[in-house]
Every structure is written in structure tokens, then in C-alpha cells.
């Protein structure tokens, strides 16, 4: 698959159009429910309200492939929509939701192996169950990584209960795509869609900082992690995190300042501005930036990779790596 690949869109989302109504079988009003509005559209409903309007691009592989051909994308890496993580639910119910989506993603990849690579989801509210489903994703379904959220029911990713999960991710060489969900300060961001433009970047920064400051990245140095949306605000507050490490030595849980461990992180390229791409390349290296568009949602980049194309300071080798090769290496498809 990788031989002729030029462009890999690492950040795209998919959902089964026939997603069952879990609220009929399991308790809870937070289950995402698909309500078809027309042949080519649907609403994702949560608690009786419209959470997001979506089009058939979210579930129809042929529609996606047509868009890929038009926009010059060779491969999409497909992952669940974060609202379906369902970390709030009982673990056994969330495991059913995870399995259903993982099976759908695996089937989509199997039917179109030259065009799609799949990432799975796991019920992180119960680490043992999550590890079992991760094992199934990687060793039975042939998926190439796992997408997780930035927190688990309000607990940051430095929660001690998650250590066994990250330990197995490192041991099994499972790449992780960390995507914001259940963002911080939700009560202050309902207007102007600030949840998407301010809340999500801040939430992602908190997740990245938590993994570093807790010592998780020092304990698991081979852990492969890519953050959505260019890492949110994390790359830009990293010097401030370093300063905090220097001035509060009594709080240190790591041998080195945060910037030392941040060099292990990967970031998608969804930052919209060549100035930001240049900053990320200068700080982390071009090999840590992976093209991702957030297809098929409104905030996505069209065409995918445009911001990389427009960053004139990049060499052709750097551009080629960022547009495709970095994603395949991150996912262990290329050596």
C-alpha cells in the first residue's frame, strides 16, 4: 500500500449509519443516537438534542473515496467521532459500543484496503476491559492504533488507574491518537462555538501536559502519541510549562523539564496557518508533524494538506514526509 502513497489524511472520522439506540437497552441519556434527516444526512442526537449535523460522508465509504480522489488524498486514517467514546457509561455497555464501531471500521478497511487505515476505540473507564478490546483491535481486526479522549470522566490522563493501559500500549507498540472531548470550562464556552475553537485546544494542552508532568512519558519513553489539532495550545505554552518546572522544584516528578519529553510527541497539521507549521517544525522537527484535516466536519482543512503545501520554508523532502510518510511510520506501516 505504501509504495505509491503521496498523501495520507491521518485525522478523519467515521460512524456507522445504523448505530443502534443504546438508550433502549442501557440506562442513560448521553448515548449518541443517529437520526436520519434525509438520504444523505443525519443528526447525532444526545439527550434529545441535536449534538451535530452530519452528512453521508460520515458513513459512506464511496462518498469518502470520491472526495479523496477530488482532493488528492491517497489514504484516510479513519477513527470514531469522540462523542461515541461513552466513557461515562457502565463499562460493559461502553464495551459493546466500542466493539460495534471497531467492527464497522475494520469492515470498511477490509473492503477498501488501499484507501483506508483504521483506528479503534476502547472503554477507558475500565482499564482491563480497554486492554482486552485493544488486543482485539490490533490482533484480530487488523487496526493500526487506538483513538482515546483527553480525559476520562473528568480525570486527566495522568490518573494512576490508566498506567496499565499506557504500559500495554508501549509493550504492544500501539500508536495512540488523542482527541479532545468533554472539554474543560464547558459552562463558559456555549456561545460563539468556543467549545470547538477555544475549549478543545485548551483541553488538548492539559492532556499533553498531564502526561509529561506526571512522569508517564519518562516511564514509557517508547509510547507513540499523536495529538489532534496540532496539539491545541500545548506547543505554545510549552516554554511556560518549562518555567513552572524550573521555579517549583518541589512539584517535579520528572528528571527533565517538559520540553525534553515533548520531543516524543507527534501532532497533526490542523493549524490552518503556515506560521504555525513552521513553529512546530522548528520546535519538534518535521518528522513529528502528520497531515490531518478533520474530515468531514466544518472546521476541516480543504484540501487536506494545504497548510503544508503553503509553508514555503519546507524542503520537498520535509513536505513529502509530513504529507504521508510520517503517518505511515507513526502507524508502523513503514519502518
From TrEMBL:
<keyword id="KW-0456">Lyase</keyword>
<dbReference type="GO" id="GO:0001760">
    <property type="term" value="F:aminocarboxymuconate-semialdehyde decarboxylase activity"/>
</dbReference>
<dbReference type="InterPro" id="IPR006680">
    <property type="entry name" value="Amidohydro-rel"/>
</dbReference>
<keyword id="KW-0210">Decarboxylase</keyword>
<dbReference type="Pfam" id="PF04909">
    <property type="entry name" value="Amidohydro_2"/>
</dbReference>
<dbReference type="InterPro" id="IPR032466">
    <property type="entry name" value="Metal_Hydrolase"/>
</dbReference>
<keyword id="KW-0862">Zinc</keyword>
<dbReference type="GO" id="GO:0019748">
    <property type="term" value="P:secondary metabolic process"/>
</dbReference>
<comment type="pathway">
    <text>Secondary metabolite metabolism; quinolate metabolism.</text>
</comment>
<keyword id="KW-0378">Hydrolase</keyword>
<keyword id="KW-0479">Metal-binding</keyword>
<dbReference type="GO" id="GO:0046872">
    <property type="term" value="F:metal ion binding"/>
</dbReference>
<dbReference type="GO" id="GO:0005829">
    <property type="term" value="C:cytosol"/>
</dbReference>
<dbReference type="GO" id="GO:0016787">
    <property type="term" value="F:hydrolase activity"/>
</dbReference>
<feature type="domain" description="Amidohydrolase-related">
    <location>
        <begin position="8"/>
        <end position="332"/>
    </location>
</feature>
<comment type="similarity">
    <text>Belongs to the metallo-dependent hydrolases superfamily. ACMSD family.</text>
</comment>
<protein>
    <recommendedName>
        <fullName>2-amino-3-carboxymuconate-6-semialdehyde decarboxylase</fullName>
        <ecNumber>4.1.1.45</ecNumber>
    </recommendedName>
</protein>
<dbReference type="InterPro" id="IPR032465">
    <property type="entry name" value="ACMSD"/>
</dbReference>
<comment type="subunit">
    <text>Monomer.</text>
</comment>
